[in-house]
Every structure is written in C-alpha cells, then in structure tokens.
Input
Amino acid sequence: MPKIAVLLCTDSIGEDAGTERHVVEVVTRLDRTRFDPYLCCLQDSPRLRDMAGCCGTRVFPVTSVWRPNGLRQILALRRTIRERRIDIVHTFATKATIVGVLAAKGTRAKVVTSRRNMGYWYAPRLLYLFRYLNRHTTRVLANSERVKRLVVEAEELAPEKVDVLYNGVDVERYAAGPAPARPTVGIVANYRPVKDLGLFLRAARLVAVEVPEAGFLLAGQGPLREELGRVAEELGISERVTFTNGRGEVPEHLRCMSIGCLSSESEGFSNAILEYMAAGLPVVATDVGGNAEAIEDGVTGYLVRERTPEAFAQPIVKLLRDERRREEIGRRGLERCRERFEIGGAVRRLEEYYGGLCGR
Output
C-alpha cells in the first residue's frame, strides 16, 4: 500500500511556543512506514532548516495573502501539492490556513485545518473568511471540546465536521529532578497581553506575604518585559521575581519550580499545563478554554474561576504550606499525563485520523 503523503503548513516554527513545538513533534514522529511528511512554512527559520534531514521542507514567503506575491506563493504551493501527489494538507495558524486551503483547491488533497485557540482576536471579517474556507475544507480539527463548541458557533459549522484531538507532550523530556531548594512558583508563558502575567504578579505579592521564602519565575519572552518589570517593582517583589527573557530551556525551568501556573485570559488547550503535569508539578490555572479538560480540579491541580489576585493566590498558598499535598497532586497529574496526553499516543491517534481520511 502506498504511503500517505501529508503536507503540514504553518506560519513558522522559529518560535519555541506551543503550536510550533506540536508541529515539529508530529513531523518528527509520524511513522515513516505509513506516511511521507512534508513541512511548509510561510517564514524561514534555523529550526526549519534543521528539519530538512527528517522530512521535505520548503518556504513559501508570504507577508500578506492579499498582495501579488501572496497569490504567487499560493499558486506555487498548489504546484507542490500536485507534483508531490499530496494526500492530506493539514494547516496550522491563521495565515497558513488561508494559504493552504486556497492552494489545495482543485487538487486531489483532503484538507484539515486546525483551531488551537478560542479566537479571542478574531475580527468579524476573518470569521466570514473562515466560513468561506470551511466550504473547501474536508475536516476541522480542534484541540479541545471547548474550542470545538466555539468553532461550531462562531464559524457556523455542523458539529459533525469538527473533530477533537488533544495535544501531547514528551513526558520523558520533562521528567522531574530533585525538589528545588527554595519554594518557587513559576509560569511558562511568553510576555503577551493574553497571558495576563500582571494577574500572576499581583497574586505573587499576596503569596509573598503568606510565604516569605517563596520565589517567582516567569519563563518566557516578549514585548511586555519592561512593563512587567515595572509592575514587579511597584508591587515590591522585584527581588523575588526572575524573568528568563528567553534564556534556557523549558525543562530546566520546570525543575526549578514547586508549582506551575497559568493566568491566561484565553487558551485553547495549554501545552504549558501538560508540561507542568509531565514534570510532576501541581497546576494552578485560570478556568478558561480547554484548561478544565486537562486539569482535574482538586485532583491534579486547581482551576481558578474568579480573575482576582486573591482567588489566584489562595490555592498557591495552600500548596506551598502542604508539601505532602503538593507532591500527591503532582504525582496524580503525572499519571494523568502519561495516560491521556503522552506525545506518542497523541501522534498515533493523529495517524489513525489521517488514515481514516484516506481510507487506509
């Protein structure tokens, strides 16, 4: 039986963020006896060039879909789909979805488009465009049931056209090390408005009063770094807060943490939460998007439903004061992660999904 040729198309894999890591994991782990993967990006990066040894890669540089070069790149991608006899085009990210769906029109390829967030920034005209693209899409793949419900409603899609497959995480990569010498409350999130790191810092001030020995770690980078530094200064906790500014790797940061947090205003299905669980950390996260599908409230972590520093700080203080409880919740989270969200299983489910689309 011939292999299934899969073209994964995304904006870029240059940044070390959730979707980018997911795409790399999928391309790397697809069974080469069944699949022939091909990776296309709209922006070049060293990471993409490094992938050339593992699969076919190509850059279709698109700054704007609506300019002449955008049309040229769409037509160039269409030629690639035909020449390589691509069976499935799977798109990630908004611009790549526009380019990928339009490129696949008139070809033999089945088209899968991903929805991996709650669309908090979608303008009405983008929703209209998605509704048009959905008419030329075989399936839409959401990364949580909550995202599926939003997609069905906002994009006016039939529920049976939207499937759900959860993200996965490499449990071994994030394996826990020795407990940190200092109790440290951490968050893995780039410094962007949607992550609401101001809420995390305001909660940290309250935690610092109750647990004076605690430290705080913000592992990420982004445009709000200076503003967040000023907030920490104004709250009087700057000496206890560490910003990584993009330095180091996520696993090493997790090994410095006692608790993993997420203060986001919106999430699809958080990779950071899976990484915390894989590292054996209890999780404290806002109850947004698919977070409740990853966390068992009170079992593997705590969901914060009220967006106030007091509500966010309360479970953190409780966990810092009870080491046995902290370890027990972390252990249960690791077990849940291994059972439901391990990357090998996630990729196998995606392989079966691809196979089903092609009848193989």
Q: What stands out?
A: Residues 4-168+342-358 form a domain with the Rossmann fold fold (CATH 3.40.50.2000). The first strand starts at residue 4 and ends at 10. The chain is about 40% helix and 15% strand.
